[in-house]
Amino acid sequence: MNALRDKFYLASGYASGLCIVLIMLIILAQVVGRFFGFIVPSAEDFSGYALAAATFFGLAYTFHEGGHIRVTLVIQKWSKRARYRQELVVLVFALALTSFIAYYSWHMIWESYVFEEVSYGYIPVPLWIPQIPVGLGSLALTIAVLDDLILLLIGKEPSYMPHEGEITMEEL
């Protein structure tokens, strides 16, 4: 099960990287196109969609790998019990916040689909299509936070702690 979760987070990271490569290819096509006298229609729109997808796909992987910024200056001086409670409160709050974001991301996708919203660029794109990565990425982040909350509750070390190097589950 642990290997499956790791593959899930890694796939999310690869999807983010793929979107960054896609941005590079779109911008490169636009530069080459200008050199040869043609335009790439809606290049800015598609690179913007890929940027949003890269951002949201990268959230779960970055959280799992401990890449998000945590300020441990104060909590490293706390007792084991106080730090455990702090981690618990922060993860519960993060789960509530990421669940809210995931729910309303999918609600936004549904509304865009129902109202048949399209982009205003050269190429009209139904907006629900580029919004799907936002929903998937926010759902993946919610799963990552829930995963670490469960690990903390059963007495194991959350995935982000070993990457900090200062605070470990044994110290809690």
Overall description:
There is one protein chain. With 172 residues, this protein is an all-alpha fold. It has one domain (2-171). The chain is 69% helix and 0% strand. It contains 4 helices and no strands. It has helices spanning 2-36, 43-64, 80-114, 128-153. Helix 1 (2-36) packs antiparallel against helix 2 (43-64) and helix 3 packs antiparallel against helix 4. The longest helix has 35 residues, at 2-36. The chain is elongated and about 65 Å long. The mean pLDDT is 91.
Which short descriptors sum up this protein?
mainly alpha, transmembrane, 4 helices, elongated, DctQ, transport, cell membrane, about 170 residues
Proportion of residues in β-strands? under 5%
Number of helices: 4
Low-confidence stretches: none
Outline type:
elongated
The portion of residues assigned to helices is: 55-70%
Query: N-to-C terminal Cα separation, in Å?
Result: 25 Å
Total count of strands: 0
What can be said about the biggest beta sheet? none
Q: Average pLDDT, to the nearest integer?
A: 91
Q: In a few lines, what is going on in this structure?
A:
The chain is mainly alpha-helical.
Question: What topology does this entry show?
Answer:
Elements: H1 2-36, H2 43-64, H3 80-114, H4 128-153
Helix pairs in contact: 1-2, 2-4, 3-4
